[in-house]
Every structure is written in C-alpha cells, then in structure tokens.
Amino acid sequence: MNVKKLAPALILLVCTGLIGLYFSRGFVTDRSGAGQQDLTRLENAGQADAQISLALERLKNSRQKATVITHSNPESRQLALTFDGLAEEKVVGQILALLQQHKAKATFFVDGLQTAEAPLTVINIKEAGHRIENYTFLGLTSLENLSVERLVADFCRAQNIISETTGRQPSLLKCNDTEYTDQVLAAAKASGLDRVVQSDVFLDIKEINSLAAANVFVSNLRPGSIVSVKLKKQSEPAVMQSAATAAGPAADKQPGLKDLPEQEAAADNDLVQAVERLLVALDRANYTTVYVEDFSKSNGQLKPGRRTSLLQPGPNDGPAYFATDIAAGLREQVRNLFTLRRAYAAEPATDGGNEIKVISTTEPALAFTFGGLSNEAAVNDVLHRLDVLGIKGTFFVMEVEASRYPELLRKIIAGGHEIGIGIRPGEEDTFAETRRNIARMRTLLQEQFGLTSNLVKQPWGAVSAATKKAVASLDCNLIGQSVNVVQSSHKDYATADQVMGEIFGKAVFSLARGQIVHFRMDYYTNDRLAGDLLETIKRHKVDNIAYATSFDSPANNPANDSQYAIKPVGEMLAQRSFIYQYPADPEKVPEHLRYDRPGLNTGQYQFLTEAAKRYIGHKNVNYEDRMFGFSKMEVRRLDMSGQIHTEDNVIFLTFDDWGTDAAVNKLLYVLRKHQAPGAFFVITNNVLNNPNLLRAIAAEGHELGSHSEKHQPMAASDPVTGRQVQTQNPDEYRQELGLSYQKLQAVAGDVIVNGKPALTRFFRPPTLAISRMGVEALFETGYEYIVSGSLSTNDYKAENAAQLIRAIKDGIYAENGAVKKGAILVMHMSDSSVYTAMALDILLTANAAKADTDPSKFKVGRLSDYLTDGYSQSNRKQSLRLNSMR
C-alpha cells in the first residue's frame, strides 16, 4: 500500500483507540450508554498550528480577499452541481453510482471532522473522479459572527485534514448558511482558499417527490447556476423523548434526538431518489454538469437573494415562474371564495393611543408589516415569498388604495394576511377629521371585504396628539415599528446587502421578541428589493436566533421549539397569556422582594459576621487579588470555595452579563429541553432596550439577580501602583445598586412560576471583585447574598465546544470523578459565548443518560431553594441542617 495512503489510516486507527480509552472514563455516558461520540477531543482533530500561524501572518501583511463564485454565464446549457457535507458511506456510494450512470460531474464540499471520521468515503469520491473541496472544519452556520482568528483556525484545520486524506489541497471554500463578509473572505484568502462558493439554488428533497416536480425545478433554472444538495440530515423528521412526560432520564438520550432507524432509512432513500430525479430532469433539459472551479468568472458580488426551495424565485426567474405563481394564486382565490375569512382582532387599546413600536410580550415571535400597494409587481413578489416562507404579515392599507386596487387587496386577504388601516393625516387635520377617516375605512373594509380591523398605522411623519386621541377613541391600537426598513437614501439601491449594512450595521446580531419590522413595497426602483429584504432579514436576523446544531435543530427535530415565528401584529396582541404590563405593578411583587423594603442599616449589625454568612466566594479572589478594605485576618473568615453547603449531588448553572435574543434564546432552549433551572445575573444598563427578553427568562422559571448597572467593579488595580483601589464612592455605588434592582423589579418583579418568584436579592460582583464599602452598600440596598462561584468557565474565550465541555466538566467533578456538591458554574449569556449552549446540551444529555444510582449523576438546582433565610456560608453544619429540611 502507498505510504501516503497508509499514514492517514494509521493516524485514524490511533485516534480511534485513544477515543475508546477516553470513553472508558464515562465522560459522555455511563457504562450502559456506550457508542456516543467523545466530543471533548474535537480540537485534537485537524491540528494545523503551522498553517494557522502562517495564515495569521498573511492577514497582518495583506488585505487581499477571496473572490466569490456565484454563477457563470456559459454559452451552452451548463450547471455546476455540488453536494454539501457527507451522508452515510452507503448513501454516498449510491449517489456516486447515479453520477456515473448519468455522466455527471460534481463537487463535494466536505468538512474536516467528517473527513477524519469517514476517510474512505472521501477517498471513494475522489476515485470516482469528482472534486473535493473545503466545507469548513465542522460545517457550522453563521461563521460571520466568529473572530478572524477562529475563522482562520477553522479553515486551516479543514484544509489540513482534507489534503492529508485526498493528497490534494482544496482551492474552494463553501460556508454553511454564512454571510460572506470582508472578514470571512480575508480569512479564506489567508488560509490558501482563493475563492468561495455561493450557491444559486438548493435542492429541497421533500419537494422533488416526483419526476414531474424535478422537471419543474429544472425548468426554472438558468444556465450557469450552482445547484447544491445538502447531504447532512437537516430536514428529516426525528423523534425526541418528551421532557414533559419523562419522569426519569432517557437511557439512550443523544444531544436532542433519538433517531428511528426506519425513519433514517426512509430519509436516505428520499435523498437518493431526489438526486436521481434531478439527474434525469437535467438530462431531459439537455444540461451538462461541470465542476464549480470551471466557473472561473466571478465578480465577487453576492446576489441579493438566494432561492432555498423549489418554489422560491431567484432574482432572474422568467415568465414560466410567474405563470406558475399566477395559477397558484388563482387556485388559492377560488378556495377562499368558499372559506370564511377571519381577520385577527387585537384587544382594544389600553394605553391612550400611544404608538406600539414593540409589543410587550414573552412570545418567541415578531411581526412583519407592509405598506404601499401602488406597485403591483412588488406586492405580488412579496406575497409569493411570504407564501413560500410560510409567513403571515400585517398589510396596512390606505382608503385610496382599497378603492383603486380592490383585487390586489382581496389577494392579500385570500393569502391569510391581516389587514390594518393606513392613515396619513395632514398637519392641520383635527381629532374629528382623523376619527372620521378611520371610521370610514373600517366601514369600507366591512362592507366590501367582509372583515374588521382595529389596527391603525401612520406610515410616516410625526404622530400628533390628535391622531393618538382619535385612534384611542375608536378602541383601536396605534401601530408603529421598531425597525423601519425603508430609508429615503435607499430608493435606488440594487441589492438587499446594501440596505442591510445601513439598517442594522455590525452590532445588531438579531431581531428580538415583540419587534415590529415595517416594509414599504412601492418605494424602491427595484421591484424585487422589498422581497429580497424580507427574505434576507428573516435568514440573517431571525433564523439565527434558533438553536441549530448538527444533532438538534428546528429542521430535524419537531420538538425543537427554539425558532422565532413571524406573525401578524393583531395575532400577537391577542395572545394575552404572553402579554405583560410594564412596569410591573408593585402590588403584585412579593412583599419581601419589593424595592422599598429596607436593607441592613450600618451600625445595627456586625459587619464581618454578616459578610461571612452572605458571601459565597471564589478560589482566586483573595487578599492580594480583588479584595479591598479587608485585613488578612478578616479575609480568612470569608469563603473561597464558591460552593453551596449541601449533601445533594446538585450543581448550579449561572449566566452573567447580557446578550441578544440570538445568544440568550439558545440557552433558554437547552435549559428548557433538560428541565434545568438557571440563575441569570444581569448587567442592567441595556435591559430596558429589550425588556421582553428579560421577562422571557423569568417566565421560563429561571432566577434573576443583579450583576450591577454598568459592570463597574467594587475595586480595581491601579495601573500605576498596582494596588487595589475603590472605583466609586459609597453614594455612587448605592445609587447604581438601587437602580439595577429597580430595573429588574420593573420588568419581572411580578413573575412567579410554580410558586417561586423569578426575582432574587442575589448579586454577582463584576470581575468578582469585592470591597468592604461595596459589601456594606449591598446590604444597605437590600441585597441578601453575594454569589461569586466555584468555577469561572471563561466560555467567552472558548475556541470550540470540546474545550468548553472540558472546562465545565472540571467544575462539576473532582479528580476522583465525584460530583462537587454545591458547585456554582459561572458562564455568560453574551453573544461572544458561542459554544455555551451546545456544551451544556451535550453535558446535560450525557448526565440524563446515566442511571439514577450512578454516583456521578448530578441534578441542577435553584439557588433560592438553598440560599434561604437562615443559610450561612460560614456555618456549614447549620446550613446543612437547614437544607435537609427543604
């Protein structure tokens, strides 16, 4: 055997043995749960330190970027066919046989880890004559959110593994559902990848369910398209064991899924059949296939929209597509002639007519609203895209539009969309005139279209007090928007990317619960731009909120409910179980948690005794580091274990700082999935910009504590002397602590789940630093316990999930494998903590798979169940006796 081919096989054999040895330690499962993958070793696969260092050096010295291949303009009927990711070896073999039968060429984009796990499958692809290129190290989505250093490491590791396996260095890169930002392109170029690939069309396996469907699909293609098939299972059904009914752990629970063999086989069969139908249809349409690298023509520009299913139009779809769309629309209208029409009706306005720009709701949903019917082509395009995406929106219609475009309005109604009343009162319009206009439009909608609406919107201009009064007098809701997509300077923009950069910038990772996004359809010169924007915003600012991993995502797990819905405004307002009052009624806040309850008064208690009782410390915070105002003798009385006194095999999951819906929602899903409570210590400076998220954390049964208002530590090191110094005077610090607690109470002070309040009087010190003055201020402002913790996971620095899993595991287990009882893990809810949710999912799944009799099995507890009145961190015996009586 050739030495070059033998070396990778030997390396794989050695790695497999090491993994097997590691499994014997019982990390992922107990003895009865063999066979699961050891994900703590991921970072060991694809080490490419030299390549990474060289690539980072290139980045410093060059600003070159990889070019983007999106399509070609061939003279003949040519397409590039790609396969993304790997399926089982048997499935790939069947696909290779079909490609050979139809004399088709294909480019397989494989990720580094899959290549290491299935090298023979990759070698088979190579020997069949097809191209093998780079699909990143793990095939993760949304790589644009990673740092350039992580991108380089990812690309180089994949390059290293693929080149060692195939004997050929990949020259093309494709990233999974990733925006090709300048940073991504620069990292690719530095890693030796001159070009990156953006597919034009993705094959939807479910839609290619017949040869006729495949023929329709191919008829809508244009020569030069890049057609891609995802081989990773991301859209097939799987069965997840219900958390609601599982009294005990699932013995064979994977991180999210329990696949049924017969369903897996059926999914594989559907995939192979869809590929066969595609190849037959391509032959009938006289298309030939070429490798992607043959499409050398690239202008480096991404197209404004990407078709992701059979019926979703691309930017250059022709008359055949629109004929299909019109026919489908006519069929839909005929069906609706015999269907009772219903308009969503929100509750009457209760705020005196003030504009609702963000709905106060904990529902994982937001709203898209639309206006402007004068451009019929744009409206039809938007309606079609909404239909393909399964979105229902709210269309605000002016009286003049309802009169001029009645058939278009009927089409909107027939599509199941909600209708609101658009108004544009003049500067001199009185309360009475505006009220008459609204009432007249309500009558028109009732008499000519058979529906009622109590939603009113003034699309542009300042809303006057008279308008607000007129809306409220008719028991209507005045709807605004938190994101207005249309800006005056964007009228002649050609692509969604141009608009996105100016609307959202780089700091907005995602949209949020309850937000209202408004689109105007008759404004842009490009008739398709409004539709391109709604698709792009959904893909990059809504879909990224969901928890989506290779083993658990909304696409492959019906029980994964982490995806945010896009719903009509009125439907969201009508969901009263999610709607809440802000600020919370103080009378509904439990008495012992009200802000005005007095704290401990200085001079009326023995400070050191109370500090020792109420401070749960950290092993690295001591007299020399992050403690100020304490003598060495006093420091000895303070806790440094960071663990709650208990005989239970219990740990506590805590999360610091603040983040967007994209980060926090993933944590909430994982905790919900495993029925695990968490304690969220919040920096409150920005929470009122997104109170719905804070309220949602509380509504799911988690605890809220303060991490200060602006994350200013009680003490810090003086840069000149190196000594610890205070950062604020007592009055300033008391004011900050009080403001932080007031914000938490205003948003979620009245939330009680299963008889347990969400709000606590717990505090986590910024940087874990404490001072005598700061602790006194905490007691005076009503805080009861200072909770630092036993392990700082540094999850925001983690380079991969495996690294973080190992760190968390070190905080849970002692060297002998026993659970560290009462351990408090410090993690973060910020957007930089990329791997926290995934790491927790894997660990909690592994723990649930253990037998109840396994001494290494832990449970996740609530801090407030243990830090009750009478608990003392300085008196272990008393605290154990107290907790034993719970």
UniProtKB/TrEMBL annotation:
<dbReference type="GO" id="GO:0016810">
    <property type="term" value="F:hydrolase activity, acting on carbon-nitrogen (but not peptide) bonds"/>
</dbReference>
<dbReference type="GO" id="GO:0005975">
    <property type="term" value="P:carbohydrate metabolic process"/>
</dbReference>
<dbReference type="InterPro" id="IPR050248">
    <property type="entry name" value="Polysacc_deacetylase_ArnD"/>
</dbReference>
<feature type="domain" description="NodB homology">
    <location>
        <begin position="649"/>
        <end position="859"/>
    </location>
</feature>
<protein>
    <submittedName>
        <fullName>Polysaccharide deacetylase</fullName>
    </submittedName>
</protein>
<dbReference type="Pfam" id="PF01522">
    <property type="entry name" value="Polysacc_deac_1"/>
</dbReference>
<dbReference type="InterPro" id="IPR002509">
    <property type="entry name" value="NODB_dom"/>
</dbReference>
<dbReference type="InterPro" id="IPR011330">
    <property type="entry name" value="Glyco_hydro/deAcase_b/a-brl"/>
</dbReference>
<feature type="domain" description="NodB homology">
    <location>
        <begin position="77"/>
        <end position="290"/>
    </location>
</feature>
